Amino acid sequence: MSEAKLFDRWDMDDVSVKDAGLVDYVTVEPIIVPKTGGRHAKQQFHKSKVPIVERLINKLFVAGHKGKKHKITSGNNVGKTYVVSNLVYKAFEIIEEQTKKNPVEVLVTAIENSAPTEEVMSYQKGGIMAREGVVTSPQRRVDLALKHMAQGTFHKSHGNKIPASQVLAKEIIGAYKSDSASYAFSERVRREKEATGSL
């Protein structure tokens, strides 16, 4: 057993990735503080080596735009690492209290449940734009799952009195239970249905 625990509280030794396609792209190695300081940034596919909790924190900084219309801007999301880390810590406390399970394990399962396997790609064919269903790469599957969790949290907490930590916890638990109330899980269903319909 490793002595390193996430936030000096949650043990990550027993957490494993069950989705065979995501094993190499979700890092759950024991770490106390989820902040690597960009040490993998110059390496190809460096995101695969970044702890999954840190990748969630990074996504919460800038959730990304939706539909290429920049409805979500970076100006509303930026902040200090301590603030966002504290938000995730509080969310994990809520998850542990409600599910009675290790919150990191719940997060990993939530990512597996909300990571789309198919999506639609647009390309030009002659003078028209054609759409075709394609298989999503493992790295993009994880990226989309985290992005949609961050966007769902931002949508439901921005301008409301509900703390973002509660919204994030609800979003992760919803994806963990494959609940359509989770924005991340519902986006997976929508993308896969769209891809199936385009075949």
Describe what is shown at a glance.
With 199 residues, the chain is mainly α.
CATH architecture: Orthogonal Bundle
Fraction in helix: 40-55%
Please name the CATH topology.
Ribosomal Protein S7
Terminal-residue CA separation: 48 Å
Order of helices and strands: EEHHHEEHHH
Total beta-strand segments: 4
How many distinct domains? 1
Q: Regarding CATH, which class? A: Mainly Alpha
Tally of helical runs: 6
Tell the overall outline.
globular
What would you say this structure looks like, in words?
This protein is 45% helix and 10% strand. The chain contains six helices and four strands, in the order ββαααββααα. The radius of gyration is 17 Å and the shape is globular. The longest helix is centred in the C-terminal third of the chain and has 20 residues, at 138-157. Helix 1 packs across helix 2 (81-99). The strands form two sheets. Strands 1-2 form a two-stranded antiparallel ribbon. It has a two-stranded antiparallel ribbon with strand order 3-4. It is mainly alpha-helical and 199 residues long. The protein has one domain (5-197): Orthogonal Bundle (Ribosomal Protein S7), CATH 1.10.455.
Can you tag this structure with a few keywords?
single chain, mainly alpha, Ribosomal Protein S7, two-stranded antiparallel sheet
Write the layout of secondary structure elements.
Layout (H helix, E strand, L loop, with lengths): L4 E2 L3 E2 L40 H10 L19 H19 L3 H12 L3 E8 L2 E8 L2 H20 L6 H13 L6 H15 L2
Antiparallel strand pairs: 1-2, 3-4
Helix pairs in contact: 1-2, 1-4, 2-5, 3-4, 3-5, 4-5, 4-6
